[in-house]
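User: Sequence in, structure out. Go.
Assistant: Echoing your sequence, followed by the structure tokens.
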Amino acid sequence: MSFTDKAKNKMEQLTGAAKERVGDMTDNESMRAEGATQQSEARVKQAGQSAKETGKNARDAFR
């Protein structure tokens, strides 16, 4: 996984966290849910990319 991908995923998580906090402060349930969803999606992307990288490393180890 490239540094760029990691940075993009981290920015997605931070943006989601900010939206969730703003939703909490303004009592806006829609924004709160959107922020939580955005954070979750970024975590899933990160996990998927990590799993893909692990598989690639395992394959290379058997060559």
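User: And one key feature?
Assistant: Helices lie at 3-26, 29-61.
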